[in-house]
């Protein structure tokens, strides 16, 4: 009612300003008062209006002047859930403005931030790499890619991220990709759920048992490295497994929840998320929002989630900064053969993915529409059932593209690996660097 208190900071993170749409949108629908959804949508519009010519957003912005106070663009700390809520707001509410912004933002992220299989931070104006760091909050990204239908790069990135977990038993807050070591001052693991969340989504999409193996390893690490007399302890140093006597609330709200959903999915499933009367969207804090008719208010859904709705072919004026595939390099092409290829080789079995070009409208073998994604309110369409034991390999490599990449990078491979056939198109997210928040 009165705006920002004079004693409060005038700076907000992009994630902080862009991660309100789901909760407040639902509030508007439940109270029949549009004000909550309107102001949060305006916040997203304001952030996107101040994007750079590369369609990138920075990490922190002054809410009074609209000036970026930190211009590092990435998918991790301070930005992560901005991307997440763009897609999820479309999935829950059917508002195509969110989808359009997500398509543009995702395309730019894959063009400038993606160094197959890692992601880096770049200057939002120039695209120059400023921070070759795997940030633990980036680990939500493969799960978001699954929701978007871009499964192939999600598989490769998850493999790389999980290799860090395997090396230390946990993922540190920061892993330096140049030195291939834990970043100084970022050695802790506060029981974050992001990698486990992505593991759940990849298993949900592929039914590949390797994700159950990954989940088992994560449970073992938590049991033997983080178990305390009264719960599970914050790991202050992943190299020496030192612990601190506190447990963040998101451990129960998300970390344990996604582990339970992963293994329950494998044996059943028998829970409301998979078999309930409605489909659900997870908020960034792991809370469930049901896509009821009152909340969703979507008159027509995609009959196949994972492909762009036919009725959503809306027109828009391209941003003046639209990139040209002929004139722009990706960061992956600039550093091909460099540090991003060293230290953590990918399991070759992950690299057998078939190339995907354009819009894919296939069906995941052996899985119904609802089993695959469990998102839209529309009842699952009937899909031909195929024997999983026969089609397991095909299931692993199949990718279903929601993203309509209408830009610049549509004809440019996202991978720098010459022996790969890759896609040609390409917070619990915390708004600040406070590890006590997720």
Automatic annotation (TrEMBL):
Compositional bias annotation for Polar residues: 408-417
Keyword Metal-binding on entry: yes
GO cellular component, one term: endoplasmic reticulum quality control compartment
Region: Disordered, residue numbers: 407-438
Stored Pfam families: Glyco_hydro_47
Keyword set includes tRNA-binding: no
Keywords tagged on the record: Calcium, Endoplasmic reticulum, Glycoprotein, Glycosidase, Hydrolase, Metal-binding
Biased composition (Basic and acidic residues): 426-438
Cofactor(s) needed for function: Ca(2+)
Primary location group: endoplasmic reticulum
One GO biological process term: endoplasmic reticulum mannose trimming
InterPro entries, sorted: 6hp_glycosidase-like_sf (IPR012341), EDEM1/2/3 (IPR044674), Glyco_hydro_47 (IPR001382), Seven-hairpin_glycosidases (IPR036026)
Binding-site residues, Ca(2+): 284
Enzyme Commission code(s) on record: 3.2.1.-
Compartment(s) of residence: Endoplasmic reticulum
GO molecular function, one term: calcium ion binding
Lineage: superkingdom: Eukaryota
Stated family: Belongs to the glycosyl hydrolase 47 family.
Protein name in the entry: alpha-1,2-Mannosidase
């Amino acid at each position: 009612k009165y705006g920002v208190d004079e004693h409060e900071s005038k700076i907000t993170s992009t994630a902080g300003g862009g991660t309100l749409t789901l909760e407040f949108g639902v509030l508007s629908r439940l109270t029949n008062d549009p004000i909550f959804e309107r102001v949060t949508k305006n916040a997203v519009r304001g952030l996107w209006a101040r994007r750079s010519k590369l369609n990138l957003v920075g990490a922190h912005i002054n809410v009074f002047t609209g000036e970026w106070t930190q211009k590092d663009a990435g998918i991790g700390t301070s930005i992560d859930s901005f991307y997440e809520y763009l897609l999820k707001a479309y999935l829950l509410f059917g508002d195509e403005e969110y989808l359009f912004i997500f398509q543009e933002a995702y395309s730019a992220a894959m063009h400038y931030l993606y160094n197959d299989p890692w992601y880096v931070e770049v200057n939002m104006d120039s695209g120059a790499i400023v921070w070759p760091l795997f940030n633990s909050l980036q680990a939500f990204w493969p799960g978001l890619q699954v929701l978007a239908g871009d499964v192939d790069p999600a598989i490769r990135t998850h493999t790389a991220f999980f290799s860090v977990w395997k090396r230390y038993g946990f993922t540190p807050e920061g892993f330096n990709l140049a030195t291939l070591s834990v970043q100084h001052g970022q050695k802790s693991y506060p029981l974050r759920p992001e990698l486990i969340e992505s593991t759940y989504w990849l298993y949900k999409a592929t039914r590949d048992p390797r994700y159950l193996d990954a989940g088992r390893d994560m449970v073992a690490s938590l049991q033997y490295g983080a178990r305390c007399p009264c719960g599970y302890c914050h790991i202050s140093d992943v190299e020496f497994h030192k612990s601190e006597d506190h447990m963040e609330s998101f451990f129960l709200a998300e970390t344990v929840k996604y582990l339970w959903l992963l293994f329950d999915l494998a044996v059943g499933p028998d829970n409301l998320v998979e078999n309930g009367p409605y489909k659900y969207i997870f908020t960034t804090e792991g809370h469930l929002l049901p896509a009821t008719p009152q909340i969703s208010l979507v008159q027509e859904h995609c009959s196949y989630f994972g492909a762009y709705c036919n009725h959503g072919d809306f027109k828009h004026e391209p941003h003046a900064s639209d990139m040209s595939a002929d004139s722009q390099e990706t960061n992956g092409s600039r550093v091909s053969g460099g540090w991003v290829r060293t230290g953590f080789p990918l399991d070759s079995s992950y690299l057998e993915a078939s190339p995907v070009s354009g819009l894919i409208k296939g069906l995941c073998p052996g899985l119904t529409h609802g089993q695959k994604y469990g998102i839209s309110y529309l009842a699952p369409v009937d899909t031909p059932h195929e024997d999983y034991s026969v089609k397991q390999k095909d299931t692993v490599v199949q990718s279903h593209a929601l993203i309509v990449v209408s830009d610049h990078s549509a004809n440019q491979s996202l991978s720098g690996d010459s022996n790969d056939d890759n896609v040609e198109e390409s917070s619990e997210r915390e708004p600040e660097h406070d590890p006590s928040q997720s």
